[in-house]
From TrEMBL:
One of its GO terms (biological process) is polysaccharide catabolic process. This is chitinase. SUPFAM superfamilies: (Trans)glycosidases (SSF51445), Carbohydrate binding domain (SSF51055). It catalyses: Random endo-hydrolysis of N-acetyl-beta-D-glucosaminide (1->4)-beta-linkages in chitin and chitodextrins. GO terms for molecular function: carbohydrate binding; chitin binding; endochitinase activity. Residues 1-33 form the signal peptide. InterPro entries: CBM5/12, CBM_sf_5/12, GH, GH18_Chitinase, Glyco_hydro18_cat.
Length: 507
């Protein structure tokens, strides 16, 4: 994935410790029988270098399965992989082990992914870095047994696609792993995540699959990165997904002539990039595109739906460029996840869904006066459902109310924000959430208050791009928050009681 950044050991997440600085790649672990993934699975990528908890984000977003990015060596020539190539994040229970167990106990799982753009351009993708096939296979087996998972992903792109020796080593190592799993009664799947044109794989990616066939290596899923085409052409991103996948299907039919059409389509995966991708606005994947791709994926019976990445599924930088932590388009948090999540184990489209929006989405008011906005709901899938509205985030000196508080999707309500003279001057985000049978959706109103007599919080306001370490305090939404550990970009009040920010109360 193009947005991957290679970070040094500048931080250690709460769920990880630097307990182990090395890894013996002898594959002596017991091959227990992990639970296989569903035949149809939604597994968005999780950016593992952010310091966030994958289990927490899984629970908050509703995505039960995650593709964990990325595993790579710390330096070129090494045979020891680490998360993000960071030696403080070894393949060990101390690194994400508790998170993975929590996700699995909730009925989901993770797919560890080797490679990625940073590794593939620096020689630290393990098959590029290590010339010993046995050690590469042992590393794969170590990940499988450490986290008790049933699928590994190989993200191979840019320079790694042209490293023919490494391609051959990787496929030989995968074959060893597949033989090891079979001998131990364990199901292990392998997916290859590859860049694509709008009409199918380029020649070097096709050659990678042909090498797998020649080595007797089973490839269970070929996952297309249906974005970053960089061809200076206008794009209907949903249509491009379908034509790219059709091109892949035609190639798979040639490589595996004994497979049925249903089996071939169940070898296909697609990974989108929500909103604006790295090329720019000409390659923008919209919510409408997501609904079209979902319906198409269900009708074809493909294996995997994904996107890059879970942390981008929000509208925090609407109107901006591609970023690691937002989509660049107007959307509610988790909109793309909510569209794709029913794909896991499902064979039909979700019957009902709705959206929530505010008009206007911001306003300024003198202390003692009121501001209003219309809460608009709409049916986005199926039939209208009952929606219960609630509001949160109003600062001290402001009373928020909704009329009505319950409605049928498609109807409107009125948000009233009544301020008093005791309100503190400043800008505050007030969130309206609609909850229905299909889940919940939210919209945010930015309220600016002038002329208030109340006092602002004395701690510095929280900044999205600033790095905070354990013990530092910030003010946000009229509350004081203390960081429990290293964090950046994680909004206070959105991570729950086990998250990074501790609410010290109103100020």
């Amino acid at each position: 994935m193009r947005l991957v950044r290679s970070f040094s050991a500048a931080f250690t997440a709460a769920a990880t410790t630097a307990a182990a600085l090395g890894l013996s790649l002898t594959a002596t672990g017991t091959a227990q029988a992990a639970t296989p993934l569903p035949d149809h699975v939604f597994a968005p990528y999780f950016e593992a270098w952010t310091g966030e908890s994958p289990a927490a984000l899984s629970a908050r977003s509703g995505s039960k399965h995650l593709t964990m990015a990325f595993l790579q060596t710390a330096s070129k020539g090494s045979c020891t992989p680490y998360w993000n190539g960071d030696t403080s994040m070894p393949i060990a229970a101390s690194t994400f082990g508790a998170d993975v167990k929590t996700i699995q106990s909730n009925g989901g799982d993770v797919i560890p992914s080797f490679g990625g753009y940073a590794a593939d351009t620096t020689g630290t993708e393990i098959a590029d870095s290590c010339t010993d096939v046995q050690q590469i296979a042992a590393a794969y087996e170590k990940v499988i047994t450490t986290y008790d998972i049933s699928r590994l992903d190989m993200d191979v792109e840019v320079d790694s696609l042209d490293n023919t020796a490494a391609i051959d080593r990787r496929n030989k190592a995968i074959k060893l792993v597949e033989d090891w799993a079979a001998a131990n009664g364990r199901k292990v799947e392998i997916s290859y995540t590859l860049p694509t044109t709008t009409h199918g794989l380029a020649d070097n990616a096709e050659a990678l699959l042909r090498n797998a066939v020649s080595n007797g290596t089973r490839v269970d899923v070929v996952n297309l990165m249906t974005f970053d085409y960089y061809d200076n052409q206008p794009h209907d991103m949903a249509k491009d997904t379908q034509t790219a996948a059709q091109g892949l299907y035609d190639l798979l039919a040639e490589l595996y002539p004994s497979k049925t059409p249903a089996q071939l389509w169940n070898t296909v995966g697609v990974t989108e990039m929500p909103g604006v991708d790295d090329f720019g606005n000409a390659e923008t994947f919209t919510l409408s595109n997501a609904r079209t791709v979902y319906d198409w994926a269900v009708s074809k019976g493909i294996n995997t739906l994904s996107f890059w990445a879970l942390q981008r599924d929000n509208g925090g930088c609407a109107g901006g460029a591609a970023a690691d932590n937002c989509s660049g388009i107007q959307q509610n948090q988790w909109d793309f996840t909510h569209i794709f999540a029913p794909f896991t184990g499902g064979t039909t489209t979700p019957s009902d869904d709705f959206s929530v929006a505010l008009s206007p989405a911001s306003g300024s008011v003198a202390a003692g006066r009121s501001a209003t906005a219309t809460v608009k709901t709409a049916v986005t899938k199926g039939e209208a459902q009952s929606v219960k509205l609630s509001v949160s985030g109003a600062p001290v000196g402001v009373t928020a109310s909704l009329s009505p508080t319950s409605l049928t999707a498609g109807a409107t309500s009125v948000l009233t924000l009544a301020t008093t003279s005791a309100a503190a001057s400043g800008t505050y985000n007030v969130t309206v959430t609609g909850s229905g049978t299909s889940g919940s959706h939210s919209a945010t109103y930015s309220l600016s208050i002038t002329g208030g007599s109340g006092s602002q919080c004395t701690d510095a306001p929280w900044a999205k791009d600033k790095v905070y370490t354990g013990g530092q305090q910030v003010s946000y939404k009229s509350h004081i928050w203390k960081a429990k550990w290293w964090t950046t970009g994680e909004e206070p009040g959105t991570t729950g009681e086990w998250g990074v920010w501790q609410d010290l109360g109103a100020c």
